[in-house]
Each structure stands twice: as structure tokens, then as C-alpha cells.
Amino acid sequence: MKYNYYFKVVVVGDVAVGKTSLISRFSKRKHRVEYNPTTNVEITYVNLQSSDLNIILKIWDTVGGPQDTAQLPTICSDSDSFIIVYEIDRESSFINVDKYIGQLRPYIKEGTILCLVGNKIDIAARKFSPEEAQRKASAFNMAYFETSAKEGKNVDEVFGYVLRKLLERKLNELKAKAAVSKSDDKISPREVLLKEMNESDPFTAVSNALKRIGINAELQSSCIGKSGIKHDFSLIIWPEGAEGGSKPYAVVDILAQSTAIGTKSIFEFLAKTVDIDPSRKILICIPKLNDEAKKFVTANKIEFIESYGFQEAAIKLFDMLSKSSVEGSIDKLNDEINSLERILSQMYELSEQ
Fold it and tell me: Which region among 19-33, 57-71, 231-245 has the lowest average model confidence (pLDDT)?
């Protein structure tokens, strides 16, 4: 499975400190030879892919003057990272770092990644020592880098650091979410169902309870098959985010009669499911299947529940669907956590080379 992450990075600093050149060197792998000042906010999209991840960095390049002030709420809102750039041979650009910190402070939240970058180290003249710049960065809890956009020195290190920290933050969020999912303190899915059963009939209760735990269930519903024919089912479970025309995740039918259910009723159900092609086919059999029918449904991968009462059958159905959903969510979280840990491990190894 591939996971998609989207991060917003805002680059600020005085005019002509090399903000656009840094972004260009990172995103296009080249340096701008001619200087053309940025006159409006520019946005660059960088797409980074691996077998597990698809990462989009949306990098905002600011003007670096009074023009930015009015646009700050739009520019800085929901930013995941701020990079402040100064020029190592221009005193005013270093002094103005404090001004940018003040402007950004309302938009810095817990987990925002901050970097201070001294650019143009290819120039011999230097107004401030690396140690002095590091002290300023440490005072504001920022990482510090010195770069040359012209020569490409340390540019990847800046954006690589930001990306690593953003992925670490995402990893911690996922681990916290997984811990909550496994917690015994929250209301159990079964308790949700029993509460619903006090207020409605058994299968309406199942439908409502499934919806309350995030499963898209429709009672007495229908869908259009591949042949264009509409098929009715007792209950349909739709995939997360499903829209019109989507294939159901699961279809459920209730077969109830006074004696054991035979293959004739199963054939009718199977004909509908072949046309619909759901991931799961489930039969509620009241009271039970005969031996021949039981062999048939097993051979055709039809799940079934046998019960002597509707309420018991509804509870069994709910347990079946909610258990697989909760376990599937936790499995998906763990898979995503493993993918992130693997990518981060590779990034750490590269950063140490």
C-alpha cells in the first residue's frame, strides 16, 4: 500500500538573500544564473516518491519585503515548517531574522519545524561567525545550516532535515493513534450495538451501530450490477469514501424459513453477488443450512451465520463486521508505521554518509 503525505513549507527572509535560488536548486537541481527578484508569492511543488510513500512538499517562496505582511495569514496558515534565510555577508539580513521570528510566531504551533539558513557561503566576506548564528538559532529552537545555492552546498541537507523531522512527527502521530485504537478505556463496539438495540429492531441496530464506529452500512439497500440490473440486499457495506457506482465491500442477505435452508436459496443469492462482485458475501441463515448447502457456500467462499433468532444473528453479524474493521484499521496503521520507520532509517543512513 502507498501512503500519501502533504506538507507545507514557507521560506522567508530579506530580498535577494537567495530564497528562490535555494528552492530552485533543491527542486530543479539547478542554480539561477540571472537574478530576477521575486515580486509575488511563488509556490513550488516537489514530489518525492518511494515504493511506500508519495510525499508532496508545497514550498512557498515569499517576496521578502513589506508586500509579505498583508499576506502573512494566507502564506503562513497551517504551515508545517518555516525556513528563515539570511545572507552571511549582509548584516541587515541577519539582524532581521528577529523580525521574521516575531512575524511568524502566531503561526508556529507545536511540532512546527524551524530552520535558520545562512546562504552564500561561496562568498569570502562574512559578517557573522557560524557560532554566532548558531546561538541565534538555538535561542529560537531552530536548526542551523550554512548553504551555497550557487554551488549546491548543503541545500539538500536543509530540505532533507525538514522532511525527516516532518516524517518523524507523522510517525509519532500514527503511534499515538495506534495506542488509542488498542486502548481498553474507550467504549467497545459491542456496547455500541447493545445501546442501539434498546432503541430499534436488531438489524436496524446493526446498521446504526456500524455507522457509529465508522463503517458505511445501509439497511435494505440496492446497487447496480455489472449487467446494469439492480439487486436488493438486506444490508450493504460500502468502502470508506465510496461514491455512486462504487463496488460494495460486503453484501448481506437474510434467509429465514421453518426448516434447514437448502441450495436453491443460495443459488439466488450467489447470482446477485456474481453480478455485483463484492469483496465479502455474507448470509444470515435462520435457523441453519442443510449439509449440502453448507458445503456449497464453503466452496464458493460465502460467509454464513446460523442462528435460531434474529437478535442473536444480528449480534453475530455485528461482531463479524466490527472485528474485521477494527483489526483492519490497526493493521493498516501498523503497516504505515513500518513503512515510515523504514524510510526514516534509510534517510538517517544517507544523512550520516
Answer: 231-245
The one-letter amino acid at 169: R
Sheet with 230-238, side-by-side order of all strands: 216-224, 230-238, 250-256, 280-286, 303-306
Its pTM surpasses 0.85: no
Q: Tens digits of per-residue pLDDT, 111-168?
A: 999 999 999 999 878 888 899 999 999 999 999 999 999 999 999 999 999 999 999 8
Pick the CATH number of 3-180 from 3.30.70.270, 3.30.497.10, 3.40.50.300, 3.40.50.720: 3.40.50.300
Local structure of 287: helix, strand or coil:
coil
Q: Per-residue pLDDT tens for 216-265? A: 888 888 888 888 888 888 999 887 655 445 678 889 999 998 889 999 88
Q: Which residue has the cell 536543509?
A: 158
Instruction: Compute CA distances 172 → 43, 82, 340, whole Å.
Output: 28, 20, 10
Measured CA distances, 89 to 14, 61, 84, 92, 94 (Å): 13, 21, 16, 9, 9
Distance CA 123, CA 69 (A): 30
**Model confidence band, residue 350 (pLDDT cutoffs 50, 70, 90):** low
**Hey, is 167 helix, strand or coil?**
helix
CATH code for residues 189-327: 3.40.1350.10
**Cβ atoms within 10 A of the Cβ of 151, count?**
13
Q: At a CB cut-off of 8 Å and minimum separation 6, what does 287 contact?
A: 260, 306, 307, 308
Q: How many helices (H) and strands (E) does the chain have?
A: 11, 11
DSSP 199: T
Q: How far is Cα 292 from Cα 114, in angstroms, rounded to an integer?
A: 68
Where are the chain's structural domains? Answer: 3-180, 189-327
